[in-house]
Amino acid sequence: MGRLGVTEILIILAVVLLLFGGKKIPELMKGLGSGIKEFKNAAKDEQPADKKTEETK
Fold first, then answer.
1. pLDDT digits over 13-37, tens only?
2. What is the Cα 1 distance to its own chain's centre?
3. Which of 7, 24, 49, 55 is a plausible cystine mate for 20, CB 3.0–4.6 Å?
4. Alpha carbons 7 and 4: distance in angstroms, whole number
5. What is the maximum span of the chain, computed from C-alpha positions, in angstroms?
6. Contact 28, 36 (CB under 8 A)
7. Distances (CA, A) of 10 to 2, 3, 4, 14, 24
8. pLDDT tens sequence across 34-54
9. CA 50, CA 39: separation in Å to the nearest integer?
């Protein structure tokens, strides 16, 4: 599968707009943004097992 061009991205955005409507899209993007933020925070807080055992010694 190749790269997505501008035309393909515009078609995808048009389909999403038709499916969800103009009012739902900001809510979806807000939810997506907060989910990504929570994932980054969880990944940042998670330490590898080796470092955790070294700190307890």
1. 899 888 888 888 888 889 989 999 9
2. 22
3. 24
4. 8
5. 58
6. no
7. 16, 14, 10, 6, 18
8. 999 999 998 888 766 655 555
9. 22
Q: Are 44 and 52 in contact (CB under 8 A)?
A: no
Contacts of 20 (CB under 8 A, 6+ apart): 28
How is residue 32 written in tokens? Answer: 């997506």
CA-CA distance, 54 to 52, in Å (whole number)?
Answer: 5
What is the model's pLDDT at position 12?
92
Between helix 24-45 and helix 6-20 the angle, nearest 10°, is 110
User: What would the two tokens of residue 31 be?
Assistant: 């939810």
